[in-house]
Amino acid sequence: MKKRDKFYITILFILPILFVLCVSTYSVFGSKLDWLSQHVSLADYFRQTKQLLPDRFANLQGQTNAFSFSYYGLLRPDVLISYVFPNVPTSFFIIVYATLLWSSTGGLCFYWLRNKGYKDSISFFSSICCICANCFFQSHQQIMFVEILPFLFLSLILIDKNKRQWISLGICMALFHNYFYTPGMILILLLYDYDQHKTIKDMIIPIVLGVGFGAVLWLPTGYLILNNHKSVVQTNLFDLLLPNLTLKGLVYDSYGCGLTVISWIALFQGIQFEKTRKLSILLIFMFVFPIFSYILNGTLYARTKILMLCLPLVLMVLAHWLQERKLNKGLLVLASLFLCTKTMFLGLLISLVFIGYYFIDKKECLVMYALVPMIVFTGLNYNQCLDPKLYHSMYSKDKQELIQRNDLKQRTADLDQLGYSVNRIYDSKEMKASSYTSTSNTLYNNFVYDIIKSPIPQSNRTIITDSENYLYLSMMSVQNVLSKESNLYGYKEVDKIGKCKLLKNKNVFPMVYVTSDTLNESKFDKLFYPYSLDTIYNRTIVNGETSKDYVSKMKLVKNLDQSIVIHNKKKTKKIIPIDFDATQKMVCIDFDVKNYTNKKISISINGMKNTLSKKHSVYPNGNKHFTYILSKKELKQFDVTLSKGKYKISNIRIYTCDMDVFDREVTKIKSLKTDSIFKGEVTTSKDGYLVTSYPYEQGYEIYIDGKKQNVEIVNKAFVGCKIKKGSHIITIQFHAPFKKLGLCISILSIMIGGFWIWKKSKNL
Which of 171, 426, 566, 712 reaches 20 to 30 Å from 145, CA-CA? Predict the structure, then answer.
């Protein structure tokens, strides 16, 4: 490598580091929701478990398959390295690793383009456009989007150098970083190999081996995803064929390539060259017609963020046009017709100035124009990082000490900073029912939000937050609550540090128990809210015989048929006095909401918040019927907070129920020491059901007196089975489906692939 090339690569490597220091001035290089509550919190938890590849995680989502969280770094190098340094914050490794991958992308882009024969100045300019692409905004937010890009560039280099056998390692690493985007990456590699070398057959074996290497991760995760339907915005197939002229997949937007306007002009100019004509036309179509995003996203949705995988191909076309130095004015006018917005028109004017100078032999203007993407990236992302106060609050020493110095039997809920704390585990003995993962358990999600009617405080209902809902707390065996307040029915303050209090309620359901009080599922499904609430508490819902029926004790106290139209220019607060008896009662409020704008709306009552996501949200929560279940010790008024916006509230209903209704007797099981999920002994006088608060999924096994039982779904979402009267020893185990098969495939692939790569490299 020439000395000048090394200089360019050094600059490209340092520049992203300077960006990180610049955009995170007085802040943390992260974001407050996905980065903090998923990437950092889960990586912290992975490290706490001290397991490389566990079957289950006992501390989240009420006990769940470990591969529910594999997307967030289960086998990623930075997370694995952090295991070796337990005293260094996990966030340090995540930030440093994301920055290094970003820096490596620029160097790899330069090396790839230089290897293809483009001039060093042009390769450097294109690489500047690469590392200043706004998609790298995701380096401090949804990091898996861009952490796949270095492996894509590396694979392109290996194709050009005819060292395709090593691509298998690149594909494997891509799977460990972002298994969802890896199929799209494979398609881009095949497209590139065919476009440049008119073949794809030499790619088949490396692809198969790479996929085989990563089977230990993607196979059990893929099976889990297939068994958990995820609600996304419905895609109209006709709309996929209509052009989308916003160009979000290419220009400026961080959920796309995020390049500047010059990249769009370059694609049109690429049409004039035989070498780039077909590729340029295809890329233009990919950025204009949603059908291509839909295909690359595996037909899940048509989001343009997947198009950031096209970044190398766009840069190659840009480099080729600059090297050929030919300007087709007709194609320039055609490209300009798409740039109608104010921002894009300003970008067009700047690009035209650059083009004018460059094509009158002013090559130094390449360096001048390189400042444009740098300024654009810095301007768009400055002050967009995480507030240090919020970051440090998630590492609260008060909460950690409260948990460590108290005996926490059963589960714990954190009612402070809902949404951010869902995945935060302060100590290994802290077990939670909350979680935030893209692959959350569907049955459990439906139970929390559709059956016991916990509020949906986030626009995305895959976030299962803790709630004051007494049904949630009791049925999920939440004996301990961390909160700044102590006005929660059934819970007593037992400890306090600073503003944080630890509350306890010993009368919640055990995590495993036996009962003979059952109700057939078909009968339960005929009940309407809220009469289903105290019913599911007092009867275990089963797909079998009913012991005896139950009559709901819920009473309607308010029925307001009139509609109320809210038109707020800012958030407002109202106090509504209670004019009915609410002493020692559960109060249930519900009403319909109709949104007249495309912005999300939220309404809070006594701190309990419901949100309706905006109309065109990718993951719509569909929360058009707000429900609030209040179980305060003292309830004298409704403190209502209304978000800004225009919306209508209608069909307001208020119900009450005496709290002593929620005091059910069940047969507890004496726990025994075990390496399994649970082992215990019990004596029951009647035939009935073994009931747990472990969300049901494939992989559970229940043994009674050593005999394997038929696992059933009880209470609409949980693991259970029939049990005969008498004395029994109960054992519950869980094995992640397809984990062992995935491990075997990976080991076999490594053995075969290692020999094949060695032999192939030796023969070259």
Answer: 426
**Are 105 and 142 contained in the same domain?**
yes
493 and 406 co-located in one domain: yes
Token pair of 761, please? 């490299």
Q: Is the model's pLDDT at 544 over the cut of 90?
A: no
Please name the residues in contact with 159: beta carbons below 8 A apart, sequence gap of 6 or more.
167, 189, 192, 193, 196, 197, 203
Q: Is 266 helix (H, G, I), strand (E, B) or coil?
A: helix
**CA 308/CA 648 separation, integer angstroms:** 39
166-175, 224-233, 490-499: which has the minimum mean pLDDT?
224-233
Write the secondary structure of 107-118 as one string of H (helix), E (strand) and C (coil).
HHHHHHHHHCCC
Asked if residue 606 and residue 730 are part of one domain, the reply reads no
Task: Verify that 623 and 668 share a domain, yes or no.
Answer: no
With the CA atoms of 407, 413, 416 and 418 taken in that order, what torsion angle do they form, in degrees rounded to the nearest 10? 160
Distances (CA, A) of 164 to 115, 160, 531, 560: 16, 9, 63, 69
The model's pTM is 0.92
The per-residue DSSP string of 433-484 comes to: S-EE-TT--HHHHHIIIIIS-----SSSTTEE-----HHHHHHTTEEEEEES
CB of 459 within 8 A of CB of 619? yes
Give residue 515's pLDDT. Answer: 96
Whole-angstrom CA distances from 695 to 46, 400, 700 are 20, 27, 10
User: What domain range includes position 631?
Assistant: 555-661
Q: What is the mean pLDDT of the chain?
A: 92
For 72-90, give one letter per residue: b (16+ CB within 10 A) or e.
bbbbbebbbebbeeeeeeb
Question: How far is residue 322 from each of residues 127, 273, 366, measured CA to CA in Å?
Answer: 13, 12, 10
Residues 687 and 580 in one domain: no
Q: Tokens representing 73? A: 């770094």
Kindly report the number of other CB atoms within 10 A of residue 310's CB atom. 23
Distance CA 159, CA 161 (A): 5
What angle do the packed helices 182-197 and 167-178 form, to 10 degrees?
150
Tell me the three state secondary structure of residue 742.
helix
Burial string for 657-676 (b: 16+ CB within 10 Å, else e) reads bebebbebeebebeeeeeee
- CB burial of 611-646 (b: ≥16 within 10 Å; e: otherwise) equals bbbeeebebbbebeebbbbbbbeebeebeeebbbbe
Q: Are residues 519 and 472 in the same domain?
A: no
User: How buried is residue 424: exposed, middle or buried, by Cβ count under 10 Å (0-12/13-18/19+)?
Assistant: buried
Of residues 2, 78, 259, 68, the one with CA closest to residue 698: 68
Cα–Cα distance for residue pair 764/761, rounded to 1 Å: 5
Say how far apart CA 154 and CA 166 lie, in whole Å. 10
Same-domain check for residues 428 and 561: no
Gap between the Cα atoms of 685 and 667, Å rounded = 10
User: Taking every pair of C-alpha atoms in the chain, what is the biggest distance, in angstroms?
Assistant: 95
**Contact (CB, 8 A) for 411 and 62:** yes
Q: Are strands 478-483 and 411-414 parallel, antiparallel or unpaired?
A: parallel
Helices 149-160 and 167-178, packing angle to 10 deg: 170
497-to-226, 431, 501 alpha-carbon distances in Å: 44, 20, 7
Percent of the chain predicted with pLDDT > 70 = 98
Angle at 595 between CA 593 and CA 599, to 5 degrees: 130
For residue 205, give the nearest of 760, 762, 660 by alpha carbon: 760
Q: State residue 396's pLDDT score.
A: 86
Task: Identify whether residues 39 and 140 lie together within a single domain.
Answer: yes
In this structure, how many other beta carbons lie within 10 angstroms of the beta carbon of residue 288? Answer: 18
Beta strands in 5-142 (DSSP E): 56-57, 64-65
Name the nearest CA neighbour of 528 among 549, 496, 552. Answer: 552
650, pLDDT greater than 90: yes
What is the average per-residue pLDDT within 550-573? 93
